Every structure is written in structure tokens, then in C-alpha cells.
Amino acid sequence: MNQFVLIQGSSEELNLFPHIIELGVIKNSSIQLNAFPKVLMQGVKFFYVLDGKFHWYIHDGEYILFPGDVAMILPGQEFGSSTAVLEVGSFSFLHINADLKDADEIVLDKWSSLSGNEITAISKILLLSNPLIITKINEAGRIIKCIHQELSNQEVGYFARVNNHIDELFILLTRQLTRQNNPGRDFHKTFMKLDDALRKDIAHQWTVDEMAALAGLGNTLFNEKVKSYTGFTPLNYLINIRISEAIKLLKKPQVSITDIAFDTGFYSSQHFSTTFKKLTGFTPGEFRKNNSYNE
What we know:
By secondary structure, this protein is an alpha+beta fold. The protein has helices spanning 116-128, 138-153, 158-180, 187-200, 208-215, 219-230, 234-250, 257-263, 269-280, 284-290, and strands at 4-7, 20-28, 39-40, 44-52, 54-58, 61-65, 70-73, 78-80, 89-96, 99-101, 105-107, 133-134. The chain is 44% helix and 19% strand.
């Protein structure tokens, strides 16, 4: 690919795509000082290394990227070079306008054809991964190239094709990221990350699909591994987490039982009370009364 840069507001090719901030290829034949300082990212930006070797600061550390590697920078993350030096080499990039909703979900807006559940699952995987570096994934470079070709040729259906390619890029990188983390070799580590994610967002109505996606496994294998590891199905394990978090809140007299029910992901206070008694032998009110001495 030849060097080019399309910029929103000054490149006609992007007039129909307000969500695309920039698209381009940078080919750098000599070291450039003060050309690549660290910046706080607005939106989501993908970098695909075509050739060379780049030392980049991403979010909270230094990383080296080689040809075929992708760096994905999320909103609010710091990115650039610690020395502000742009090294010799070339890379393509795509910068899209996106934000974070409640700091735990990437907002892609109406241009994306991904469903709400798909965006939620993708967001959770990406936000739990640090850094977002995917190695040896040439398909990502092909997708960015296809986006440029569609914008340049503007053939029938190019608007849909461009947006579909961006969705495809999100899906590709998320899937590859879960495979790259190789959860099958160390399920304990994967399971601990999953447990932490569930507890941090316990009010969310988690599905098995979302939990399996976080673990980077298919549903069948995920169910088997969780059952083998914990003795529970994924949903029953989730219920146990909800109850354990509810127990902590019941020891805080200022928090109502109804609030606890919704804060820990139950559909109603009755659902909470029934489930709580089934698993502990007490209603939430009885448990709170019996443990009032802990306050």
C-alpha cells in the first residue's frame, strides 16, 4: 500500500462516515524526533505493523511490535513513544469515533450492525485485556486495506461494506485475543479473571455466551471446564457469587434488602429471598438479624 492519510473533515472519502476519524498508511524511511509523543486516546485506534519494529508505550507499559502485529488503543488509554521518536518502518491505521459507557462498554453507535449483546461481550473481553496487542494477524491488515479500497472505488454498496469491515475487525481481534491468551492451558488463571469480572459487574444479567466469550472458549467446552473446576454449571456458579456478594451487603444495615436484590443481579426481592433461603437456610431478613452483631 502506498502512503496516504484520510482525515475527517478534509477528505471527501469520509463525508458519509463521520465515525471514521482517520485512515491511513505511514511509511517512515528515517528516524523522526518529536514526531510520536504520548497522547491520551480519544476513540478507538487500530495500528497494523507492515514492516519495521516499533517500541510503543500503550496504556501502562512499553511494548515492541513486529510486522503482522496489531495494537488496539481504547478510549482514555495513553499511547505513543516514551521518547516521542517515530522509528523506521511502516504501519496502517484506522481511528474511529467511539466512547465508553459507564467505563465498561464501548459505544459504536448506529453505524455498527453488531447487536447489543455482541457489543457487550466484545467490550468486556477488550476491557479486561491489557495491553491489546494481537500478534501475527495479517487478516487485520487485509481488512484495513479493504476499507481503503471501498472508500476509494465507491462502488455500489460501499457504505455497508466499509461499516461491515469495521465490525469484522472488532470481531476478528476479539476472537484472536481470546485464542492468543490460550485459556485451555491455564484455566485457573482464566477462571480467576472471570470470577473477578463477574463480581465487579454482578448486577449485569450475564449469559453463558458472555461468560464463555470472556474465557475465550466455546459454550460446550466452557460448561465442561467450569463444572469440572467448581462442581457447578456456569449459571449456578454465578448464583453462588450473587449470594456471596449479597451476604456482604446484608451486613450493612443502611442498604435495603430490595436494593441488595437488584444490586446483585436478581430480578426481584422475592426472587432474591427465595434463592437466598434455598442456598443458606435463611431469608435475607433472618440472616441480617442473626448477624447484626457483626456491625
